[in-house]
Amino acid sequence: MDGTEDIAGQPGPAERSHRSSVSSVGARAPDVLVYLADDTVVPLAAENLPSLSAHELHRAIREVLQLPDVAMDIFALWLVSPLLDEPSLQFRRNVFFPKRRELQIHDEEVLRLLYEEAKGNVLAARYPCDMEDCEALGALVCRVQLGPFRPGQPTACTLREQLDSFLPAHLCRRGHRLFAALRGRGAKAGASEQGLLNAYRKVQEVAGGDCELEASLRTHYHAYLRKCHELPYYGCAFFHGEVDKPAQGFLHRGGRKPVTVAISLEGVHVIDNREKHVLLGLRFQELSWDHTSPEEEESVLWLEFDGDHEGTPVNKLLKVYSKQAELMSSLIEYCIELNQASEPDAPQDSGTGPSSAPGSSPPPSQRPQLQRQGSVVCSRIQHLSTIDYVEEGEQIKRVKPKRTTSFFSRQLSAGHGSYTVVRPAESLEQS
């Protein structure tokens, strides 16, 4: 989109400039383009761009969007680039903003921006979700975009035409395109659209039919965010990396798989980019970490955690290759420092405050255990190649890796593996 064009659905240009000489664009070409979570652009003009501070730019964006002062804590400016080249400036959720405070927000535009960002992460599978959770979230998107559910409209076949607007793309894929084309409009609806339609039918409306549309949308924005709060990686920062694959086959070939490392105030999650599920999820009290940046080798983030090897307690080391290893290490350290600094105030936040209202997310130590054992948010340590070791006196004894496959290709599949966590009361298989 050209920077001089008006932005559909956004407030008009501000009537006056800031003291920092930053203003919304009028007739002149923009000096700064700031992207929002819904891919719209806020063009800004600056008199002295090299001396412009991030605080002044943040204030200019809030004024153009007419956001309340609390938005200063909720949102941050991000420089984002997949290839660390020509980064775009984005106005996104602040990773250090506590989830419990989101449910206290009532400004519709702030809620809409948070909703759009969360929706984008769900649809792009950056937030892996189980099918039934995707359907529940997709139903709320249907409600926001299509209005209240009305029997007979839309139908499952109608939803199929725009299914990727409501569900992640990998859940919308069909078989061969020719076969899909032969199905035609009159074909029986698939499980995805039928499940979405059933969930859409169950979306509850605000009590009292005369409520304003804005109040109704706020309710559904809140419902979407509250559902996302159940995901352990909600509100995290994403980093690119690779991990070693377990050795397979007769020649014990391994290789690497691309992963996303998600870091939030609660912990670290390593997500399989291809399979769209969690490989490892650790809260900060469950890990030790470090990073190395050799001059002639790749930068590595090391994650150490407790595990077992054939019933024997061992320490496990996961090696994450990434150019962003130092950034990840620094963010982990800062998140831990923030948590430690806020611990004395934690008891004051509990009780009768808004954070303990029905439907709000429980604190990490009180998370309910997942009922779905095959959930995408459960760790799959058996899919990782880790270095296992035990301490014997002052020496470290490395445990030989167990062969993960038979010499013969035809065999009875043992299904998904399992693992024993070190702390039974604080299982890794928690949301």
Automatic annotation (TrEMBL):
InterPro entries from the UniProt entry: Band_41_domain (IPR019749), FERM/acyl-CoA-bd_prot_sf (IPR014352), FERM_2 (IPR035963), FERM_central (IPR019748), FERM_domain (IPR000299), KRIT1/FRMD8 (IPR051594), KRIT1_FRMD8_FERM_C (IPR057096), PH-like_dom_sf (IPR011993)
GTP-binding as UniProt keyword: no
Gene3D superfamilies: 1.20.80.10, Phosphatidylinositol 3-kinase Catalytic Subunit, Chain A, domain 1, Pleckstrin-homology domain (PH domain)/Phosphotyrosine-binding domain (PTB)
Keywords (A to Z) from UniProt: Cell membrane, Cytoplasm, Membrane
A biological process term (GO) from this entry: negative regulation of canonical Wnt signaling pathway
Annotated region (Disordered), positions in chain: 1-23, 342-375
Function in brief: Promotes the cell surface stability of iRhom1/RHBDF1 and iRhom2/RHBDF2 and prevents their degradation via the endolysosomal pathway. By acting on iRhoms, involved in ADAM17-mediated shedding of TNF, amphiregulin/AREG, HBEGF and TGFA from the cell surface. Negatively regulates Wnt signaling, possibly by antagonizing the recruitment of AXIN1 to LRP6.
Name assigned to this protein: FERM domain-containing protein 8
The species this protein was found in: Phyllostomus discolor
